[in-house]
Amino acid sequence: GEEIVFAHKPSPLLDDGDLTDISTVPADSGAITSLVSQPGSDNSPIFTADGKHVVFLSEGGQPEPIGLSDAYMISSSGGKITPLAKSFDRNIGSLLKGDNKNSVYFSEGRRTLSAFYELPLNGDAPKRITPNDALYSFAQGPTNGKIAFTKQRSNSFEEVYVSPIGKMNAKKIS
Which of 25, 37, 99, 41 is nearest to 74 (CA)? Predict the structure, then answer.
């Protein structure tokens, strides 16, 4: 059956602050299995396109006082956590799964603007897909290989676009 991956706090205690762990649960049984449990924040998990791995954002097992986080990967059945290449600002906004089993995608601020990146799962550096020319806001997940996003420049109103997730051949729909 299908599995769900999710981030959760280890307890409801206020002292647990920003601590989050990652677990999986089969949709047909409800039996929760811990996948990542370490100090600090581990969040925003997604399955890779082939379902063999989970990519997530983490402080790397040590709480970060200024909230920096990087992307990590673990087998969907558990095991060793592997760091992926660091992003420009180490402040990824959201992770998105595409159709490519060798990459995931993310959005992140870049100086005073924002951009969308492809993050190879082999550890290579992220590749910027969008120009660094606007403020972009991306949907939380692609549908049928497409992504919806808004784009705004200092001299124009915000507009809505759709595009194939890895190619950014944007079509304005607003």
Answer: 37
Whether the predicted model's global pTM rises above the 0.90 cut: no
User: Which of 145, 140, 87 is CA-nearest to residue 117?
Assistant: 87
Tell me, what amino acid is at 106? Answer: F
Q: How far is CA 118 from the centre of its chain?
A: 11
- Please check whether residue 84 is in contact with residue 56, taking contact to mean a CB–CB distance below 8 angstroms: no
pLDDT at 17 over 80: no
Q: Which two tokens stand for residue 137?
A: 């806001």
Query: Residue by residue, what is the 3-state secondary structure of the chain?
Result: CCEEEEEECCCCCHHHCCCEEEEEEECCCCCCEEEECCCCEEEEEEECCCCCEEEEEECCCCCCCCCCEEEEEEECCCCCCEECCCCCCCEEEEEECCCCCCEEEEEEEECCEEEEEEEECCCCCCEECCCCCCEEEECCCCECCEEEEEEECCCCCCEEEEEECCCCCCEECC
